[in-house]
Specification:
It is elongated and about 105 Å long. The longest helix is centred in the middle third of the chain and has 29 residues. Among the domains are: 209 residues, no CATH class; 180 residues, Pectate Lyase C-like (3 Solenoid), CATH 2.160.20.70. The protein is 34% helix and 16% strand. Strands 8, 9, 10, 11, 12, 13, 14, 15, 16, 17, 18 and 19 form a twelve-stranded parallel β-sheet that branches. A three-stranded antiparallel β-sheet has the order 4-5-7. It has a two-stranded antiparallel sheet with strand order 1-6. By secondary structure, it is an alpha/beta fold. The protein is built from 16 helices and 19 strands. Belongs to the TBCC family. It is found in: Cytoplasm, Cytoskeleton, Microtubule organizing center, Centrosome; Cytoplasm, Cytoskeleton, Spindle pole. It comes from Oryza meyeriana var. granulata.
Length: 573
Amino acid sequence: MADDPLDPPPQAPAAASPTPVALLRPRREAFEHGLLPIPKLIFPEGTLAQTLAQVKEKLASAAASAGGRVGAAALAEALQIPHEQAALALATLAAVLPAEDPALEAAGGGGGGGADLRDVMLFLYIQSYKRLVPRAHKDSPAVTDVWPSTSAFDGYLSALSPIQLVRSNSRRFMPSQADEEIHQLSYLQKHMANILTLLADSIEGEGDDSLVLTMETFEHLGFLVQFSEGTPLSQAATFFANSDPDMPAAPVPAAQVHDWISQNISSSLEFSTEKSTSKEVSQQVTSDIDVTMADANASNARSSTPTGSNPAYYRNTTFVEGFSKTSVVKHASDVKGHSVKVLNCHESVIYILAPLKYATLYGCSDATVVLGAIGKVVKVEHCERVHIIAASKRICIANCRECIFYLGVNHQPLIVGDNHKLQVAPFNTYYPQLGEHLAKVGVDPAINKWDQPFVLGVVDPHDSLSHPAGVSDVQAESATRLDPDLFTNFLIPSWFGAEVQEPTKCSPFPLPEIYCASQSKKLAALEDIRKTIRGLQLDDNRHKELANALHAQFKDWLYASGNIRQLYCLQGD
């Protein structure tokens, strides 16, 4: 299933500046979920094109006998990496492709069926991408007195927790969604000639005319870019528009394709930069141009999508940002698009009870986040003392501390970065529509690899914020299993559930025997207490005193645990 087409942008106000009919945008999924901190996948920029051309030669010879597809064994040999890392790379590619690849997914996304060579080359190319660093403060010397500049040892050896690290760079100076998009477009503009050369076929001719792209190959660029209106690339390009499927269009010189893409990227960059600059000038305290929920009342919060007039920043993404000491509930009807981002939420309970493709948790602390059904990837970064309950095909955990993950995942949890005291446990909740949502996004509850983490290195070559260049890498700290005696089921209030024909009445992921035994032991102890209370020979006054004492103790627990706040918030919805 291809990425859902973008919702139509909101109506622009009369005073808004004219906008292009369609803007070429980077596919954020490739950059946000498709980068792996595996050193041998990342080549120096000076030799990037030459090295990848050599890799393509090796892969092409293997792919020639496999219908143009590359398996994990061929990728491992070409890059000289372990087979399991090659399988991880292909699984990651499968998770960020704009459309389902049945052959790749049939092999569990692990490369058994192989991936299209063109997709593999695009995936390998963007491994050289470097994420945008925090913006400089206008009064740099003054800020330096408060926040020293990052050294080669900061982040790796410092005592800063993930939340402190995020806060130390200040929300105002962290890159916004618009900043990141501009950075990604600039990267693509700089490297597009090399990318097209990697994809192009050679024919007889001289100079630029010897490299051509077919319409099929051209469509593979949809891995990197897309139009804001959701128009397919081949329909937007004049040289392929309105081609007859029965009579494919003739190949087009790569130079012509490059001119067309460069022109579109330049138009998008000009428009995006102008909007971003005007926003900075008009607002002294900037909030993300994509986010409109940060100051919303939590009890009345709905899904958040951009409401500005700029289609370049319009997202198929729901944002939940900046909530503190409250509860937020999102049903399928509240969520627009195919992804959700939960950002900078603290001491809160967030329920995302909807079928989605992607989910990102960033900068949260002392919170509980429930993710109902995520068909592609969940990414959790810079979180501290958070309980994450997630049913997903895949999950990536980076730079987190003292978090517990209750997982139902079809692939091994990927753990990277500077993590401390992480724990994993089986999935522990349900709501009436959960089974329906899992089926819709393709998560198989019969497969759960919650306790089989795949651990990579501490240093992320794509990110200079927390782990700058110059620090030698070591394996990241893995996660431990949660003690079965500490495992509890998480109950989602029944009034959240809508009427469904076959409601889910328990966790669809089977519970391991050791956790089942612990649950049975607790239930037996509870039943013993009930029998003891029922067996007490008490008169009415003493019975009333006991009931009042139990109610008082329960009320004290509600206040001490903070759950009384959640109860009030949810009853107010």
